[in-house]
Amino acid sequence: MKNRQESAESLALQGLAWLAGQDEAFGAFLAQSGSDAATLRARAGDPEMLGAVLDFLLSDEQLLLRFCAEAGFAPEEPMRARALLPGGAVPDWT
User: Fold this and answer.
1) 55: which residues sit within 8 A by CB, 6+ positions away?
2) How many folded domains does the chain comprise?
């Protein structure tokens, strides 16, 4: 399980690095998360912050598809990674 979580965190870190290069989207992420760049740098390894990065990417299909295309991920990989980070479990309603 640890390797899977580490892989999820790695994908999210790549998402954060990519997002930091997208001025408009990065500004929107900072506003949505209530963080500033310094706080984000300090919490970049925090699994909860990484979950927030993936939540942001997953909330915008075009942004998600651009990230996946440029980073070399299949579009479903960020959702799988999100499920492995805090707050990402999908409830089973059955």
Assistant:
1) 82
2) 1
Helix/strand/coil (H, E, C) string of 27-89?
A: HHHHHHHCCCHHHHHHCCCCHHHHHHHHHHHHCCHHHHHHHHHHHCCCCCHHHHHHHCCCCCC
Position 10 in a domain:
no
- Give 14-65 pLDDT, tens digit per residue: 999 999 999 999 999 999 999 998 999 999 999 999 999 999 999 999 999 9
36 in any annotated domain: yes
Contact predicate 64/76, CB 8 Å: no
